[in-house]
Amino acid sequence: MKNAQMLQEPLDIARLSMEERVFVKCRGERQLKGTLHSYDVHLNLVLANAEETLTVVDENNKLSKTVRKLPLIFVRGDAVVLLSPLGES
């Protein structure tokens, strides 16, 4: 994202992050990183070259993470908790 002054509404973050890498936190301890290809007013997202991380705590309070790579994924907007551009790293 190039210019923080251009942010006037929440969906501006998505608009300014088109074709850039983003971080998406979803309900259910699911996180995604990928290139934002498309979005709509409901915050439905299409991500390419995505990496999904699912964090699970089992009955023994052990934390486990599962990571999978996805070439293309549709994320339903009502599952999205946070959308953020990824900085260059």
UniProtKB/TrEMBL annotation:
Gene Ontology BP term (one): mRNA splicing, via spliceosome
PROSITE patterns: SM
Domain Sm per the UniProt entry, residue ranges: 9-89
Keyword Nucleus in annotation: yes
Annotated localization: Nucleus
Keywords for the protein's UniProt record, in alphabetical order: mRNA processing, mRNA splicing, Nucleus, Ribonucleoprotein, RNA-binding, Spliceosome
Kinase as UniProt keyword: no
GO-annotated cellular components: Sm-like protein family complex; spliceosomal complex
InterPro entries hit by this protein: Lsm3, LSM_dom_sf, Sm, Sm-like_LSM3, Sm_dom_euk/arc
GO molecular function: RNA binding
Major subcellular location class: nucleus
Record family assignment: Belongs to the snRNP Sm proteins family.
PANTHER family (UniProt xref): U6 SNRNA-ASSOCIATED SM-LIKE PROTEIN LSM3
UniProt name for this protein: LSM domain-containing protein, putative
Organism: Eimeria acervulina (Coccidian parasite)
